[in-house]
């Protein structure tokens, strides 16, 4: 259950400049407690800078930031209950995964309260916890970084591209873990450039473009704004197929085939018309999903 009365994150008018470069320009962000909120944008949009400000690693030039009700710039005590995986995690390569996490738990003052074995099990590293980290792949190190966050049993988890370096199976496991944590009441802010990942995991999203908020709102609301999907269709007779498009379907002939803009239901109806008309479909590929098209339009990414 999402409690909108007390935001886990509240940012107002946030500005961050590095010399003549303004990385964040008047950013507002509100993340309800218990939700999974996506932070979406192309490379250079300001996502990582924002995350670093939220954990007190970078000081803002202007604006206010509250994380679990506190200003993260005031020191470690103000960041109690917050864990983050920002950019690539770093560990002592000669030590095992378990020893690395135990050291982090001790440095964090958790002692026995830091459940290292449980954290390793939740990211699928329990059977390899005694191996030296130098023998870990990029994906395994990413999993270990997430485990380091879980040792803190955070109320708020900030993740910067958590599926980076993972194979499809590992990425799926991370997505399942994020949803599991959210179901347990953990608030998650997930930074990504993958609209499909955000669509699958998040309740709401903020889209950044060149340091500014291009759109913020619920995923359901964004879906209603999104344009129709674009498909690449190749048939046995493209010239005839182009004349058979029903209402609601736009067809453009190109050297590569027919570019069809339609909802999924209208595309299905078009495929039925082609079959009944004796025009075989050779290939049909989704070129741009609706939410991807909206992301491109808002961020001017071609």
TrEMBL record:
Which superkingdom is the protein from? Bacteria
- What's a Gene Ontology MF term here? ATP binding
Residue span(s) of domain ABC transporter = 9-235
Alphabetical UniProt keywords: ATP-binding, Nucleotide-binding, Transport
**Pfam families given for it?**
ABC_tran
| Entry-linked InterPro entries | AAA+_ATPase, ABC_transporter-like_ATP-bd, ABC_transporter-like_CS, P-loop_NTPase
What protein family is recorded? Belongs to the ABC transporter superfamily.
Protein name per its UniProtKB record: ABC-2 type transport system ATP-binding protein
- Please tell me the species this chain comes from: Motilibacter rhizosphaerae
């Amino acid at each position: 259950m999402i409690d909108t009365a007390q935001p886990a994150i509240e940012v107002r008018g946030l500005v961050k400049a590095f010399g003549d470069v303004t990385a964040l320009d008047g950013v507002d962000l509100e993340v309800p407690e218990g939700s999974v909120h996506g932070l979406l944008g192309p490379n250079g949009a300001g996502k990582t800078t924002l995350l670093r400000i939220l954990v007190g690693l970078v000081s803002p030039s202007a604006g206010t930031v509250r994380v679990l009700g506190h200003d993260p710039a005031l020191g470690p005590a103000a960041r109690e209950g917050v864990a983050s995986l920002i950019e690539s995690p770093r560990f002592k390569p000669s030590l095992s995964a378990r020893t690395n996490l135990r050291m982090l738990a001790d440095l964090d003052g958790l002692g026995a309260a830091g459940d290292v074995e449980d954290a390793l099990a939740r990211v699928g590293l329990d059977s390899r916890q005694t191996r030296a980290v130098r023998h870990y792949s990029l994906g395994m190190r990413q999993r270990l970084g997430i485990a380091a966050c879980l040792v803190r049993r955070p109320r708020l988890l900030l993740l910067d591209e958590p599926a980076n370096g993972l194979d499809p199976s590992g990425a799926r496991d991370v997505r399942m873990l994020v949803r599991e944590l959210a179901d347990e009441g953990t608030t998650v802010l997930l930074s990504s450039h993958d609209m499909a990942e955000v669509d699958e995991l998040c309740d709401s999203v903020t889209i950044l473009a060149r340091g500014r908020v291009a759109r913020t709102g619920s995923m359901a609301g964004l879906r209603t704004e999104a344009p129709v999907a674009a498909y690449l269709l190749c048939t046995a007779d493209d010239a005839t197929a182009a004349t058979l498009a029903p209402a609601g379907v736009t067809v453009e002939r190109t050297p590569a085939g027919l570019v069809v803009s339609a909802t999924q239901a209208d595309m299905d109806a078009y495929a039925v018309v082609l079959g009944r008309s004796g025009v075989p479909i050779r290939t049909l590929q989704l070129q741009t999903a609706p939410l991807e098209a909206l992301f491109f339009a808002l961020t001017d990414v071609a």
